[in-house]
Amino acid sequence: MTSNTPNLAPGLELLSEHACFGGVQRFYQHASREIGLPMRFSVYLPPQAAQGPVPALMFLAGLTCTEETFMAKAGAQRLASELGMALIAPDTSPRGAGVAGEAESWDFGVGAGFYLDATQVPWAQNYRMESYLTAELLPLLGQSLPVDLARLGVFGHSMGGHGALTLALKYPALFKSVSAFAPICAPSQCPWGEKAFTGYLGADRTTWAAHDAIALMAAQMKAPFPAGILIDQGLGDKFLPTQLHPGLLEAACAQVGQPLTLRQHAGYDHGYYFILTFMADHLKFHAAQL
Predict the structure, then answer these.
(1) Average pLDDT over the chain, rounded to whole?
(2) Identified catalytic residue from 91, 117, 232, 237
(3) 162 flagged as catalytic
(4) The pTM is what?
(5) Sign (positive or negative) of CA dihedral 148, 153, 157, 161
(6) Is 281 a catalytic residue?
(7) Per annotation, catalytic residue among 158, 212, 245, 286
(8) Which of 49, 123, 244, 274 has its C-alpha lying 20 to 30 A from 23's C-alpha?
(9) Is 16 one of the catalytic residues?
(10) pLDDT for 1 beyond 60
């Protein structure tokens, strides 16, 4: 695969590539029109991509993570190679915007974009992760790499689990499958979400519903993902009681008849050892739908 040099779109720069399980792990940078700054992302292409476009799965990482975290820690490439599935991991926020206070706390600003388009000054100019992912990055990948955007799934962890759920619910024509590890299910009702939404969207809570999985699910007229949604949650997760609220998502899914598999695991915490343990189940879950 390493000899299969892609036809890069203008402005897309290949930073590095590494042979991996018969395929290739790549890291890219490009000048983003939506963000107004350089953005980085990573892609794993399985060996099957040498023959033509393959289904793809986008992973949205959690607070403080980068485009490298998932690829380095999650152990997903081996099975993705066997399944013939590409993996995509964007960064978690703009970097270098120079907004006052953007690097002062780990749960807001840099590394904490919450996968939405900010509406409040000074964040609105650069913090546009929702439009960046859906309107810019994915079309760029379809243009430049052998990925089949008609067979695209999304999953994520924590803040990224929130992003996976909300973007899947808002763009069902784009994402054909969705799952999450320890997602922030009800950001309007937890400290992380309240802090981020107040800063990015303002104090008017009625504007928050468009970025809250509970509200988005409750607004559905029928099950948006009839093949099901998969959620894994560790019961040893210190953030479970105050930040994550999977029970609220379970109730919202039941209300609209959305099949949900919520698996709760004794002893597992919020970190990547938990993700690593159940990664294969998520890849197979998406592969069966894509």
Answers:
(1) 96
(2) 237
(3) no
(4) 0.96
(5) positive
(6) no
(7) 158
(8) 274
(9) no
(10) no
